[in-house]
Write a structure and sequence with these properties.
about 120 residues, globular, about 0% strand, 5 helices, mainly alpha
């Protein structure tokens, strides 16, 4: 017997429960791990200060939480995308570094993707 709350009101057919990682979520995790790796390489080559390792840990923890479909991982990833976007806009306007437009746009797309209801219903 099916629960009436689990049926589609238009067709009357039962709705499938959405579970699992979306391909876009996996791409966002790869992006976070890429930023983490770039930061670590910058610290190792002495181009970035050692305090950048805190941001690298933040990106790695956010990616791990999102891969495990945790709500806190989703929130950390959303915060990381928003803060990276804000930092990119600041550097773009303050120092006129045009290549950061790409970073700003990628982080804006990630932020808007993570704010979708389909993504939010996947995390627990």
């Amino acid at each position: 017997m099916t629960n009436p709350q689990d049926t589609n009101p238009k067709s009357g057919a039962p709705e499938a429960k959405s579970t699992g990682l979306l391909p876009g979520m996996a791409a966002v995790c790869i992006w976070n791990l890429l930023l983490c790796g770039i930061g670590l390489i910058g610290v190792i080559t002495h181009n970035l200060p050692p305090s950048v390792m805190i941001l690298c840990a933040f990106y790695a923890i956010a990616a791990n939480g999102l891969l495990k479909l945790r709500r806190w991982g989703w929130a950390l990833t959303l915060a990381a995308a928003f803060l990276s976007m804000c930092y990119g806009v600041y550097v773009l306007f303050r120092f006129h570094q045009l290549p950061l437009v790409v970073m700003v746009m990628v982080n804006l797309v990630i932020f808007l993707y993570l704010a979708r209801p389909e993504v939010l219903e996947r995390v627990k």
